[in-house]
Design brief:
It is built from five helices and nine strands; from the N terminus they run βαβαββαβαββββα. The protein is α/β, with parallel strands linked by helices. It has a single domain, classed as Flavodoxin domain (Rossmann fold), CATH 3.40.50.360. The strands form two sheets. Strands 1, 2, 3, 4, 5, 6 and 7 form a seven-stranded mixed β-sheet that branches. A two-stranded antiparallel sheet has the order 8-9. Strand 5, helix 4 and strand 6 form a beta-alpha-beta unit. The protein is globular. Bound molecules: flavin mononucleotide. The site of flavin mononucleotide (FMN) has 15 residues, from strand 3 and strand 5.
């Protein structure tokens, strides 16, 4: 099972890198984690006449095609969602807007990051992913930029480690149900 770990920020020095490194160290047995930072997929703002859901996985330029192909290969996703102005970052929303069948009826989990763990970006993301008929698991992790980072890395409490284990447990179960 392939789980894409999406970093939803393009900000130089973004804290999402530390979150991704923490998540990637915790790969559960039987799952391959695929790191998908948006910095490696430079996407135009959505400017296409077609709806991606009806595009038969064929996209108008190489960058979008590379992004869609990478998402298509994943069975499930962990979205690292920075909270920007009480919602998901514009770049993450734009990256999602470019996708259709690549997200359809797959499982996802949300990791928020912000002053108080990004609860509003996570709720916003749950709303967005519902449009893909996804199973977005109940377990989530909120990373506080003030409490959970030390020297540029995640300094997770025991509870946060448990929360991440719960995310992986529920995500692998949900993805397996979709695969049946
Ligand atoms: C434009 C902008 C808006 C932000 N809005 C919020 C916010 O509404 N709530 C919050 O907790 N943090 C907010 N922050 C702080 C981010 O949570 C912080 O930058 C965090 O590290 C998110 O990931 P990043 O490092 O990729 O920016 C904002 C940051 C930026 C740049």
């Amino acid at each position: 099972m392939k789980i894409g770990v999406i970093e939803g920020s393009l900000r130089p020095g973004s804290t999402t890198g530390a979150v991704a490194r923490w998540i990637l160290k915790h790969a559960p047995a039987g799952a391959e984690l695929v790191h998908l930072p948006l910095t490696e997929y430079p996407l135009p703002l959505f400017d296409w006449e077609q709806h991606p859901m009806a595009a038969n996985r064929q996209y108008p330029n190489a960058q979008v095609q590379a992004w869609a192909d990478a998402a298509n290969e994943c069975d499930a996703f962990i979205f690292i969602a920075p909270e920007y102005n009480h919602g998901v970052s514009g770049v993450l929303k734009n990256a999602i807007d470019w996708l259709g069948p690549e997200l359809w009826e797959k499982a996802s989990a949300c990791i928020g990051i912000g002053a108080d763990g990004g609860p509003r970006s996570v709720e916003h993301l749950r709303q967005i992913l519902a449009n893909f008929n996804q199973h977005v698991v109940r377990a989530q992790v909120g990373i506080s930029i003030f409490l959970d980072l030390a020297d540029g890395e995640i300094n997770a409490s025991e509870q946060k480690e448990k929360d991440l284990d719960a995310v992986f447990g529920q995500l692998v179960d949900a993805a397996a149900r979709f695969q049946r």
